Input
Amino acid sequence: MTPFGLRLRQLRAQRNLTQKEMAAAIGVSPAYLSALEHGQRGQPSWALLQRIVGYFNIIWDDAEQLQHLASISDPKVTIDTSDLSAQATQLANLLANRIGELDENQIDALLRQLQPKDDGA
Output
């Protein structure tokens, strides 16, 4: 599952909507919507994201949050380390090879380490 897929599922559940109902309303198949929620599809297109925002009548900060979640929800990430150090290449490869072995606490610790710091601005 992706961060975007999780949020989409939460929004749908809060409104007691089925995938079939939502899919019909935003112009996609229920199978595609299910795949999007489960992280089996890439990031939604800008047009689809706008249809989702409109469908849920999401405004301002919530719409920006959903757009941000979509931007960090590519389930098939490629990392180009060709211009980086050997250590950066090693890190990328170790993460790619071992991410499935990490537990939730380890993932949370890495996320805290790597996420941008909020400077309060």
Remarks:
- The chain has two domains: 3-71, 78-121.
- The mean pLDDT is 92.
- The helical segments are 3-14, 19-26, 30-37, 46-55, 60-71, 86-98, 104-114.
